[in-house]
Write a structure and sequence with these properties.
37% helix, 3-stranded antiparallel sheet, alpha+beta, single chain, 3 strands, 4 helices
Length: 143
């Protein structure tokens, strides 16, 4: 069973949460093995929000049934179609979707970070549209 000792706040409105219940979740691993996790759900106490959130452990990625380690290995390229036995999941199409999902996530994160750096660090507007690494820009500014 997965539980949390933290008292999380609502990511939507910043309100307090209260425990609601627990739900089952499948956590798939390489070779077709699966674990069943009990995931705690909490509800926002703010009357205008009332959103329900699942408190996922680090081994879970939202909306994905496979273990986060498996997905990370596929995205990093350490696990590919040849490394998987034929009867074991995930399928080639799933591997492709994970890679595309990661690419879009990476692009979005890079854009969000560039935008924040532009506002907070007062970078030039050209930096927003350049292909230059944010890390390189920060290193140059600190030296």
């Amino acid at each position: 069973m997965v539980t949390s000792n933290e008292d999380p706040i609502c990511p939507v409105c910043g309100g307090r949460h209260r425990k609601k219940d627990r739900v089952n979740r499948i956590n798939k691993k390489i070779g077709g093995r699966t674990d069943r996790l009990r995931i705690e759900r909490r509800t926002c106490t703010n009357e205008s929000c009332r959103k329900t959130h699942r408190l996922l452990p680090d081994i879970c990625i939202p909306y994905k049934h496979y273990n986060s380690g498996v997905i990370e290995d596929v995205i990093d390229g350490t696990l590919n179609e040849e490394a998987l036995c034929e009867e074991a999941y995930p399928s080639e199409s799933t591997l492709y979707r994970w890679r595309e999902w990661a690419k879009k996530f990476r692009e979005n994160a890079e854009g969000q970070i560039r935008s924040a750096a532009y506002r907070i660090l007062d970078l030039q507007e050209e930096f927003l549209w350049s292909g230059r690494s944010l890390l390189e820009e920060l290193k140059e500014r600190l030296n």
